[in-house]
Fold this sequence. Notes:
With 102 residues, the protein is mainly beta. It has one domain (2-99): Immunoglobulin-like (Sandwich), CATH 2.60.40. It is 0% helix and 57% strand. The protein contains no helices and nine strands. Strands 1, 2, 3, 5 and 9 form a five-stranded antiparallel β-sheet that branches. Strands 4-8-7-6 form a four-stranded antiparallel β-sheet, with no helix packed on it. The chain is elongated and about 40 Å long.
Amino acid sequence: xxxxxxxxxxxxxxxxxxxxxxxxxxxxxxxxxxxxxxxxxxxxxxxxxxxxxxxxxxxxxxxxxxxxxxxxxxxxxxxxxxxxxxxxxxxxxxxxxxxxxx
Length: 102
């Protein structure tokens, strides 16, 4: 996995800086935590796709889905649920977030 330096891309509606960070060369899993995040991060947007171009939150049937969700506030994870048709594929992920410490 490669992660890129976070950068400030704007301001969130509450006036806090809005950050962005991208991750490449992740490997899809059938279910569970894909990324563990710092406890001060509040995820505002998640974008991503598999190497085959399947976008996240896509459902094409029982074995063909690719879904990211944010874990609970105490876990601070990005969770993945992926049908057997998409397990072990390379994927990319971009997060936009604010920080409780700002």
